[in-house]
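ARCHIVE CARD
CATEGORY: sequence design from structure
SOURCE FIELD: tokenized fold
FIELD CONTENT:
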């Protein structure tokens, strides 16, 4: 399983919206308010789990190495 960076998920949302024909169409299809879709695409809001799930992904916690000098 390969994790995706946030920008990649946002790109996949943009692709899904384009395939649906509009933000409104994708929002109706998924039950997610169009305003949230718009705010995510314009980077005014973090991507909620509901959008991640609607795109066919799940959220799993993961650990990544700290940047050098961050360990105490």
């Amino acid at each position: 399983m390969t994790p995706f960076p946030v920008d990649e998920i946002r790109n996949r949302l943009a692709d899904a919206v384009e395939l649906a024909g509009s933000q409104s169409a994708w929002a109706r299809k998924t039950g997610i308010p169009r305003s949230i879709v718009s705010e995510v695409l314009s980077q005014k809001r973090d991507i909620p789990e509901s959008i991640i799930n609607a795109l066919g992904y799940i959220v799993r916690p993961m650990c990544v190495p700290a940047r050098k000098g961050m360990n105490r």
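CARD ANNOTATION: The CA atoms of residues 32 and 54 lie 9 Å apart. The helical segments are 6-20, 23-30, 34-41, 49-54.
SHELF: design records, drawer C
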